[in-house]
Hints:
The chain is mainly α. It has one domain. It is 55% helix and 9% strand. It has a three-stranded antiparallel β-sheet with strand order 1-2-3.
Amino acid sequence: MIEKLDDFLQSKLKLNLHPNKSIIRKYRQGIDFLGYVVLPHHRVLRTKTKKRIVKKIGHKFQDLKGGIISEESFNQSLQSYFGVLSHCGGYEIKRRILSKS
Length: 101
């Protein structure tokens, strides 16, 4: 299957597949793309991305409490992460972050 895809990409689009980064997965497992897992009918945040967001928000909150960063800087970071969560089913994660800060 990968050989057929590679042939198509090379002949029609002038693209190459990276030999070590191409895998064939079942449709229901979704596609891992830009921190999300894209499933047939919805998107979910990748677990590693979720953990990273929660960890970084925690560090930013400690920096805010310690006076290292301003409240404006903290809020900008928070809104940025909320933007990431808005593209998936991130309501529970957002609620958990707001309850901690």
